[in-house]
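#struct-pred

JT: dropping the chains for the assembly here, can someone run the whole complex?
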Amino acid sequence: MKDFTYVLPKDAAEAARAAAAPNCALKGAGTDLVDRMKEGVTRPDTVVNLLTATDLRSPIREENGRIVMGGATTLAEVAESALIRKVAPGFADAAAEAATPQIRNRGTVAGNLCQRPRCWYFRNDTYACSKKGGETCYSIEGENKYHAIFENVTCNIVHPSNLAPILQVLGGTLHVVTANGTDVVASDVAVKDFWVRPEEDISRENILVAGQVVREVSFPIPQGMTGSSYVETREKASFDWALTSCAAALTLDGGKIASASVVLSSVAPTPLQLEAVEKWLVGKAPSDALFREAGTKATDGATPMRDNAYKITLTAVVVRRALSAAAARATGGGK
Amino acid sequence: MGGHAEEGKGSVSRRGFLKSAGVAAAATSLIDDAKKAMEPVGPAPAAAVRGETEIRFKLNGKETVAKVPPSMTLLELLRERLDMTGTKQVCDRGACGACTVHLDGRTVNSCLLLAMDATGRDVTTVEGLAVGDRLHPVQQGFVEEDAMQCGFCTPGMVMSCAALLAKNPAPTRAECAEGISGNICRCGTYLNIFRAMDRASALAKGGK
Ligand SMILES: Cc1cc2nc3c(=O)[nH]c(=O)nc-3n(C[C@H](O)[C@H](O)[C@H](O)COP(=O)(O)OP(=O)(O)OC[C@H]3O[C@@H](n4cnc5c(N)ncnc54)[C@H](O)[C@@H]3O)c2cc1C
Ligand code: SF4
Ligand code: FES
Ligand code: FES
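RK: done, full complex below.
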């Protein structure tokens, strides 16, 4: 690993100012960044350690009808939070199923949302692929078993974050600070508007630019008979990256689905909001048959590559399971 | 923080956000130029270090002082500078668990932890589990149940098992499997490890 200047800011404002420096990387726990630095894929001259910024460590709490937490809250803290388990068990599940106990003990919520893709060509310094400024996407002709089956046009990565789809389903918000010279301004961005598709800018996965730090993350506490869930499939029963994943929230009223939010992940470069499926579900009574059909509908328009057509079946499976779990939690009075 | 209590209030549209971010970035370089011309302005920059830097932390209960460059991992510090080779390096990427140590009582991959991030913290390695000649119940369990073959994964496994036992004195098989899900054993000793955990649990309760 190349040596670097290590900045130890006391808060997000200091971090954002420092991060406006050229060739600078923000670091939460570093479970993604340090990996990329060892591979030589990312070679920063300056690293800003967000773990010393105290406002990024603000506790998980209820505030004005929302659940709010510092951006450096760990995945383990989310998984173990009684408050999150109570109001949004899908969020707790997504954190609990991510990575390994060791990674969850360190990895942060903001770092999880901003982690770079796992495409093996991207992670390998010897491949100068399109995402790294080259001319070719090696996954098109190469090994694409774990790549996208939707929106796979110019870069076929899948979004790697477990928290992304569930936070989007819950209507989450990222509270960002931006350095503007020595001034620092705060702004909010909805999770659903956070992602950047490869066709918009192949070099990045979200809208953050140099000098911006996610200080806090929040979502509104689900109201009424609402249930949320996160379900994934993987190759190994112990830790593994998801092959397909789905987050869902259903609100029931009078035995019918009053509103639905369904987001697929691990199958496209960004989390995918299934608006057509959501619309189709509203007004219908929850049932196994309904959710099975929703699963099939969710695969409409898939464009699998040579080695990943299996993801179509596994997409239908996660959608069905996520909807069933969300409905069960909604009727169970759980959230 | 205020400003995000209500949806919409204080929030910006995606396009607006992208635009203002671009403006902010442009403004930054202008201001940087201006700053060079008439320093000093604005708040003091954040603390920063470069090159060999002294850190202090507790290692197996002992106050420890070491000099490390920011790019050094805790694993490298332990093995290469402090001669603590019990902690193993295998994948060096957070994926195998061989380098597992406890940071303030919780398991972490020391290969992904910058040594500087251990500043002021409590680090326990496999060398720190036994009390004098008395093995930790997990170590005793591993010995009695023959829970290793080549032994390369063992220090990390033992650290994950010890952390699990501290949290959960009588874990089920499923809880054990979850507890060691971040540790890979190429020799496939998992069943013996589960038995070792049962044994450790009994030993920790004072059973014989
Ligand atoms: C073996 C292994 C298995 C894994 N399995 C899974 C899995 O199944 N599911 C899953 O979701 N993840 C998985 N992960 C990824 C892991 O969850 C992430 O690496 C971790 O959550 C990242 O958090 P961090 O604090 O370490 O981020 P860092 O490595 O510190 O940062 C990651 C990125 O986010 C940026 N960043 C960090 N914090 C902020 C902030 N506050 N504001 C702006 N930008 C920021 C950094 O600049 C960097 O680019 C796995 C990782 C490993 C090593
Ligand atoms: S999928 Fe994206 S990251 Fe992977 S090789 Fe293609 S362009 Fe590069
Ligand atoms: S060596 Fe650290 S996890 Fe493999
Ligand atoms: S005993 Fe050989 S790797 Fe586990």
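JT: nice. The longest strand of chain A covers residues 244-253. Chain A has 13 helices and twelve strands.
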